[in-house]
Amino acid sequence: MKEKILSKHFDLENFYKIDVYLQKKGYEAVKKALNEKTPENILEEVKAANLRGRGGAGFPAGVKWGFVPQQVDKPKYLCVNADEGEPGTFKDRYIMSHDPHLLIEGIIIASYCVGIHTAFIYIRGEYEAVALRLEKAISEAYKNGFLGKNILESGFDLDVYVHRGAGAYICGEETALLESLEGKRGNPRLKPPFPASIGLFQSPTVINNVETLSNIPSIILKGAEWFCKKGLPEDGGTRIFGVSGMVKKPGIYELSIGTSLKDIIFKHAKGMAEGKKLKAVIPGGLSAPILMADEIDIKMDFDSLVDANSMLGSAAIVVIDEDTSILDVLKVVTRFYSHESCGQCAPCRIGSSWINKIVRRLCDGKGKNEDIDNIIRLASNILGNTLCPLGDAAAMPILAIIKKFREEIESYVSN
Amino acid sequence: MINIFIDDKPFKTKEETTVLKAAEEAGIAIPHLCFHSAFPPEGSCRMCLVEIEGLPKLELACSTQVREGMKVSTRSEKVIDARKGVLEFLLAEHPPDCPICDKAGECKLQDYYEEYGLFDNRFRESKEKKQKNIKIGKNLILDQERCILCTRCVRFLRDITKTRELGVFNRGLYSEINTYNDEPVDNNYSGNLAEICPVGAITDSDFRFKTRSWFLKEGESICTLCSRGCNIFIESHKGFARFPVPKRVYRIKSRENHKVNGFWICDLGRYGYPYLDEERLDKICVNNGKGNLTWQECIVSLADEIKKLHSAKKASRIAIILNFWLSNEELFLFKKIFVDDLGVKNIYFVDSPEGENDDFLLTSERCPNKRGAQEIGFDLKPLDSENLMNKTDLLLIFGLPVSDPNNLVEIKALFENVKTKIYFSSHSDELCSLADIVLPTVLIPEKEGSLTNVDGVVQKFLQVLEAPGECRPEWEVFVDLGRELEININYYKQFNTPEVVLKEMRKEISFFENKSE
Fold first, then answer.
1. What residues of chain B lie within 8 A of the CB of A374, using their CB?
2. Core-most of A249, B164, B333, B490, by most CB within 10 Å?
3. Is A350's CB within 8 Å of B93's CB?
4. Residue A97 covered by a domain
5. Which residues fall within 8 angstroms of residue B288, CB to CB, at 6 or more apart?
């Protein structure tokens, strides 16, 4: 892949400092957007680029921005979802610590397009150092006239605030994020109404992932067509794939959408570590249904993975080797979701912990085969019946692991 | 109005309605736990999931708006499975407390399991242990293990009393309801929390372990402890065949009425019922040595005395002390007899002492029918005993059920300077041994009639408790008296029920003309 969009300057020293950033065409996109384009132009461009959300759901960004009503008597808000809670995901922290001004440019252009004058970056509480770096970058942007009142004499005002979370995966869900930002418990809201009409403080709100917004400057500078060519026609651009697990070179890899999973693992991450054999791969963060070793010959784009009954999600690839017990994987999955359940609705609150309790019993050697059927039944009762997608995110991987690795699990039970 | 289909049957419904409300109006019950009409939909219990044609997932009936042509199924296989699933989750971590839980018999989890569940328990793990007996308010006990986190209590305190004493703590399965910093629930509407809790998590310590809900008989009545006239249920039972109990009333519950009290009642009205059973007077007492008398004998003798004074043009020697607990019908009949027929002018009212109003339901007036007395045309004179001492031959007093010591002192003094004293009372008190004849009367739940509340709403009430012993309602006594006095017999002959009296009131007094309650 020739020219990178997001991680182009990750290796440049001090690139998070604005004086270094400005040396490499920094803030040119903002200048072009504010001086040469109208909000309508920008919306058209982003829609044409087929930029799909990089947080996990994959909703087209341009369409989402288009849902916000033009004229309202309420202020509009932008919330940047920097919660990065999906296990296996670590791409956004790289963008925020190595190229924060790229994100800030994306925020400015998105806000200008939708008519937003206040933006919040909701960053997970654990990213303390990253948050400090972001705050420094923001204050540099203010000093240089890229934020605040009358940016670059365009008449456009924008304020950006960093708000730290307090350790809840559920606060990465957009409506729970809004609740947390408002100072309340991070409980998801019922949808409808959607945040585009009733969001933060009951006002129209756009919520976008860090990586999604960081693509905007390139779309403005190089155009939608160029962006689409970097990926697939219906799915433009690149993804920062995060590879972890038993590979020789775990880390981030910015590659075109549609790159083969096999290539990512064996070419870019240099294959299995310590001579281990591949057993399974979780392709898109913990919520993405697991793939077996013979299923990794697949293109990493939204539609291909849906066809394989999985999902691209946050493009976090976790490689599992043959020496890892799949029961341990199941234990980690169920433990995570029962710990992170917000507790509002009965199926997730009780179901995720019930399944976790059963799995723990299986791990202690006190299980029976009927327990496996029970887990399937319980997970199926959670699926589709919860207030927010966390229930589905818990049920789907559990069902996939049991379906694909049933024999292995049964062998643990009978021993 | 738009057309929808519920379980293949067509219904017409208003446009801005939810599926749950539309189904309710159509007579189709959809189970729900966290939803309550007083608050906006919460959507957390997931019991009300229904199938809507054209939509892939099940939707919540409590928060989905109806649309023209919508086809809802409340009993499809998917819905039944989902309901069983949700119930199973709720029951999995629920303690098997039914044998010791006060909510048994009126518990939503029990009801829904019976109707939609009936599956075997498949939970083989350890349930979470939480606190089971936390006193969170003057009459409230919280059991965190029974709690299903519907958050009705939290939302009540947030939206209705706006005092926010309860909150949800921790996350996931460790979520629990509790007070902040041990500050108790302390407002005049705390009792409503035990009512709205769908399970036995918040229970009323006033009712704790006293009886089972299925022994209680429910009667619709009106609270009489202030002039709001909140609609209530009086729940009572007579005891058991081999174990009768003197106490009848076990509990007061609120009754929905959006013209008067909405969904709620205050704690004063909820816990103020003991006076209905305690210290009741149920026998005629004769203290002037004339032996035992029947009601008939008393009325005849009273009528004789009055006739004597009336024909001697000595109506000014008759004095009456009334109260604002008498019903509209009683006050009307009384006025007809004593003011219109007899021309008595010495009519005074004793009032319960005023209290603080609470900017919601509780009024500062603490009697149920002051407005009624006003509209019927009485001049609401407070007692002026100076005017009556040594000038009164016959004094009739209608006692307050909840008597005020101040009134007692003044009346005792008056007693010493009046010839004949007839005391109508529902309760035993000091005056009973001082009056010449004491006639036992019933309380509002033991008779029929109507009351007028502070806003002018006329509310009918029916009898829900049996009259104790020889107690009789005042309206009956007045009708008998009216006939005995023979001044206007034919007029009083028609009044065989308070309903007839109210009809007559509607003809004569324009205020009551348009009140069709």
1. 122
2. B333
3. yes
4. yes
5. B436, B437
Q: Say how many C-beta atoms besides its own lie within 10 A of residue B142's C-beta.
A: 27
Give pLDDT tens digits for B377-399.
999 988 888 888 888 999 999 98
Chain B partners of A387 at a C-beta cutoff of 8 Å? 43-44, 46
pLDDT (0 to 100) of residue B514: 77
Are the Cβ atoms of A343 and B171 closer than 8 angstroms?
Answer: yes
A185–chain B Cβ distance below 8 A for any pair = yes
pLDDT tens figures, A293-336: 999 999 999 999 999 999 999 999 999 999 999 999 999 999 99
Are both A173 and A32 inside the same structural domain? yes
Q: Are B302 and B439 in contact (CB under 8 A)?
A: no
pLDDT digits (tens, 9 = 90+) for B192-216: 999 999 999 999 999 999 999 999 9
- A394 contacts chain B (CB < 8 A): no
**CB distance from A359 to chain B under 8 Å?**
no
Among B173, B176, B177, which would you mutate to test the A interface (most chain A Cβ atoms within 10 Å of its Cβ)?
B173
A140-163 confidence digits (pLDDT tens):
999 999 999 999 999 999 999 999
Domain identity same for A249 and A311: yes
Instruction: Residue B417: count other Cβ atoms within 10 Å of its Cβ.
Output: 13
- Asked whether residue A164 falls in the same domain as residue A135, the answer is yes
Q: Which residues pair with B65 in a beta bridge?
A: B18
CB–CB contact B172 A352 (8 Å): yes
Distances from the Cα of B301 to the Cαs of A383, B298, B309, B344, B390, in angstroms?
Answer: 81, 5, 13, 19, 22
Which residues of B fall within a CB distance of 8 Å from A385?
46, 49, 58, 82, 85-86
The residue among A400, A408, A361 whose CA lies nearest residue A383 is A400
Q: What mean pLDDT comes out for the span B73-94?
A: 97
Chain B positions contacting chain A at CB under 8 Å are: 41, 43-46, 49, 57-58, 60, 63, 81-82, 85-86, 88-90, 92-93, 122-126, 148-149, 168, 170-175
A279, A296, A321 — which closes off a domain? A321
Domain B128-276 in CATH 3.30.70.20? The answer is yes
Chain A residues in contact with B41 by the CB 8 A cut-off are 190
Task: State the DSSP string of B440-508.
Answer: EB--GGGS-EEEE-TTS-EEEE---SPPPTT-B-HHHHHHHHHHHH-SSHHHHHT-SSHHHHHHHHHHH
In chain A, which residues have their Cβ closer than 8 Å to the Cβ of B126? 357
Q: Which among A339, A341, A349 is the top mutation candidate for probing chain B, defined by the most B β-carbons within 10 Å of its own β-carbon?
A: A349
Which residues in chain B have their CB less than 8 angstroms from residue A168's CB?
Answer: 171
Q: What pLDDT score was predicted for residue B388?
A: 86
CA-atom Rg of chain A in angstroms: 22
CA distance to A354, B45, B87, B121, B197, per residue, from B109 (Å):
19, 12, 8, 14, 11
3-state secondary structure of B178: strand
Q: Which CATH number fits domain B285-513: 1.25.40.340, 3.40.50.360, 3.40.50.740, 3.40.50.300?
A: 3.40.50.740
Q: How many CB atoms lie within 10 A of CB B386?
A: 9
| Spatial CA neighbour of B6 closest among B16, B24, B14 | B24
- Whole-angstrom Cα distance, residue B50 to residue A193? 19
Contact A119, A103 (CB under 8 A): no
State how far the Cα of A263 lies from the Cα of A267, in Å rounded to an integer. Answer: 5
B53-63 tens-digit pLDDT: 999 999 999 99
Q: From B97, B186, B171, select the one nearest B139 (Cα to Cα).
A: B186
Q: What is the CATH number of domain B2-92?
A: 3.10.20.740
Paired with B207 in beta bridges are none
Going by their DSSP bridges, the two strands B418-425 and B437-440 should be labelled as parallel
Pairwise CB contact (< 8 Å): B86 & A341 = no
